[in-house]
Amino acid sequence: MDIIEFFQLSAGKWRSHRMTHHLVFKAAERGDSDIEVEFFAAAHQDVIRLCEMHEIDSSLAVGGSHVHWKGTMQWDFKKDDNHEGETVFAIVPDAGTLCQGRLLRERGYAEIVPVVGRYQIDDAGVLLLTTEYETMSVIERFWFVSPDIRMRLSVVKLYGGFSNAALCIETRIEEALEAQCQTSSTPKVTSFQPQKMIAAGSVYSVLGW
Q1: Contact assessment for residue 72 and residue 33, using Cβ atoms and an 8 Å cutoff
Q2: Sign of CA dihedral 154, 72, 133, 117
Q3: CATH number of the domain within which 120 lies
């Protein structure tokens, strides 16, 4: 599987179940999100616009996507805590290979600014994505168990030393089950709620999902 096939397989609607381990608090937090992904061909105007934003030749791009996500986290302090957003991606592989390159984003997840990550995809179809922000680094691994089940493992490291790790199980939502998924919810557990000194629960995946 190459990076284009990976993004094409990711297109559609997904339900993500996430467990985040906050290492400094020695506690875990659950979260759920609904994600919708649209694959873009290289000639799509949003891919071209994003390349221009990053001052990269758009002819080097091989595709991209638009991602919208909406979620909830167990430690949400207010009903209006916002875990909703969207972004556009552009895939710019290194010369002569689709196995590694740059992933351009309209906005990041750890910091809401345009950002460029580095990707690698191995022979088994496992995608490794590394993103450096001003205040933290994010390392993520993605792989498909089947065309309708995807796994994600991520580690967030703040430069001050704090870090957390998250595991997500993402399942494709079929149209017939979409209404049922929209009405489902995760029970609130309030046995542990750290002060909101670090918005670790708001750090969403690089791919929106």
Answers
A1: yes
A2: positive
A3: 2.40.128.20
- Nearest by Cα to 202 from 74, 44, 48, 68: 74
Rounded CA gap, 62 and 102, in Å?
11
Whole domain around residue 167: which residue ranges?
3-202
pLDDT in single tens digits along all 209 residues of the chain: 999 999 999 999 999 999 988 887 788 889 999 999 999 999 999 999 999 999 999 999 999 999 999 877 655 555 555 568 899 999 999 999 999 999 999 865 544 578 999 999 999 999 999 999 888 899 999 999 999 999 999 999 988 787 899 999 999 998 645 555 455 544 443 343 444 333 434 444 545 44
- On whether residue 209 sits in a domain, the answer given is no
DSSP character string of 100-118? EEEEEESS-SSSSS-EEEE
